[in-house]
Amino acid sequence: MNRSYWQQAVGDTDRNYAAICLKWDVILNGPGYAGSWPDCAKKLRSDECSSRKVTDLKRFSEEIKDGDIVVLRLGTSTILGVGVVVGDYEWLDLFGDVDGWGLQHVRRVSWLWKGLDSPKNFETYTLKQGDTTQKLDSPVVTDWIESLALDFDNAPPLIELPIYESNTVNFDSVSEFLFDNGVSSNSIDILNKEIDELVRIAKWYNKYDNPSEFETVSYLAVPLLRALGWTPQKMAIEWNKVDIALFKSLPRKDSNLSVVVEAKKKGNSCLTAFSQAQSYAKGKDNCRRLIVTDGLRYGVYVKQEYEFRLYAYFNITNLKASYPIYECFGVNEALRAMTPEWSE
């Protein structure tokens, strides 16, 4: 079989989604908001998307063929996976929010070599930088792939993707959920008003500017936490290197620390802030929740037995009930888990 070799980027060193690709047997491309290829091309051009990006999507959708070999690249020197393409191009809204990126353009890949924990590193610029999808023409890399002796003709069956139905929710249904779970009507009214204001601010930032990390905390994260019921006495900003520390009771000390909130500048990865938040919670036994945010997106981690796991995630500009690709809850459970009263 005459196979072409491809290199597929998985973000950058600040935000990469290789784990999602390897978990669900996919490669992804975006932006995907305009719908499937080729119908999206006209919309993207009218939105002043670059012709280079449109060509990149065409390459991904049309030129990659069933049976081709693909590597996941990070930067120009690192490979995180090697696999064989299975089937044709698809547009799947399941991947409409991958740590903030809309990556609905999808190809299925059966991965025969995974290097998430021990990636293969080459010299810088061994792999081409630039477009997300490119032909792989580095002899050093293709020779290495050959040395792996992978059986591309007998690749493992694909992982079954989660069943996905549009699960966008409005704040009325969120309010009903919170009320049913013990949140007061007054708190919900305050939260409703605050959410409207935060969405307006978020949309302004999307259009005109990116907030600094300090602005993320001041204008986006703190107002939401206040609306959820946290009082200034139990909220400490820049406390022992923690962006926002939330306390179950006073005084503000390690044994009373309940939640660590780690904020990132908008446009950076939200979920990769987890490791930093976790390090701040280390040794503080009563801290069983972590919140990571860029002001628009929030990931809530809950300690289960001895480790923190992603419990819920939401984007204030696009509220959803669940996130199947992360196997976690959405906005309802996220907001409930961010309240002072929450308990496991």
What does this structure look like?
By secondary structure, the protein is α+β, with helices and mostly antiparallel strands. It folds into two domains: 5-154, ph1033 like fold (Roll), CATH 3.10.590; 171-337, tt1808, chain A. It is 29% helix and 26% strand. It has nine helices and 15 strands. The protein has helices at residues 18-24, 40-46, 51-63, 139-147, 171-180, 185-208, 213-227, 274-281, 331-337; strands spanning 5-9, 26-29, 69-74, 78-91, 105-114, 120-121, 133-135, 235-239, 242-247, 257-263, 289-293, 297-304, 307-315, 322-323, 328-329. Strands 1, 2, 3, 4, 5, 6 and 7 form a seven-stranded mixed beta sheet that branches. The chain has a six-stranded mixed beta sheet with strand order 8-9-10-11-12-13. Helix 8 links the parallel strand 10 (257-263) and strand 11 (289-293). Helix 5 crosses helix 9 and helix 6 (185-208) packs antiparallel against helix 7.
Question: How would you concisely characterize the structure shown here?
Answer:
This protein is about 30% helix and about 25% strand.
What is the element layout, followed by pairings?
Layout: E1 5-9, H1 18-24, E2 26-29, H2 40-46, H3 51-63, E3 69-74, E4 78-91, E5 105-114, E6 120-121, E7 133-135, H4 139-147, H5 171-180, H6 185-208, H7 213-227, E8 235-239, E9 242-247, E10 257-263, H8 274-281, E11 289-293, E12 297-304, E13 307-315, E14 322-323, E15 328-329, H9 331-337
Parallel strand pairs: 1-3, 10-11
Antiparallel strand pairs: 1-7, 2-5, 3-4, 4-5, 4-6, 8-9, 9-10, 11-12, 12-13, 14-15
Helix pairs in contact: 5-9, 6-7
